[in-house]
Amino acid sequence: MKIFLIFPLAILAACQPAGPVEMSAAEQGDLAEALRGRTAEATVSCIDQRNAGGNRSIGEGIVLFGDRGDKIIYVNRPAAGCPIIDSSRALVIRTTSNRLCRGDIASVVDPGNGFGYGGCTLGEFTPYRRVN
Q: 35 and 127 in contact (C-beta within 8 Å)?
């Protein structure tokens, strides 16, 4: 009986988020460049998919949504990080609504062959609005 009580506790401990992903100096510079001329607004739990625009990552710690010249860029920091998104990888989020929300599970895949690189759970979204 004790084995069954200890085993589930070990699984729960292993599933806890590892904490925020550390960013290198180069990644911090990339984030600063992406957000240049923008100011942060209050963090939100969900955004409309139509406002998400394109997405890309900065290292494994940041996913940017709406970063193709949009007025607002949303910065998402998945708690345990997310596989890198680049020109050969796409972020796939299955949702039953027209919104992306904290807690949604995203997968990073190669759209050409469907190979998966892993996944992540989205965090809060911090909007950065362009200063005119």
A: no
Q: For 14-43, give one letter per residue: b (16+ CB within 10 A) or e.
A: eeeeeeebebeeebeebbeebbeebeeeee
55 Cβ neighbours under 8 A, 6+ residues apart: 63, 64, 65, 66, 67, 85, 91
Token pair 């992540």 is at which residue? 120
Q: Copy the structure tokens of residue 5.
A: 């009580």
Token readout for 9 is: 């506790």
Between CA 67 and CA 113, with CA 77 as vertex, the angle to 5 degrees is 65
Residue-wise DSSP of 108-132: EE-TTT--EEEEEE---EEEEEEP-
Residue of 119, 56, 63, 120 whose CA lies nearest to 88: 56
pTM: 0.81
Domain ranges of the chain: 39-130
Per residue in 31-83, pLDDT (tens digit) is 999 999 999 999 999 999 887 888 899 999 999 998 666 789 999 999 999 99
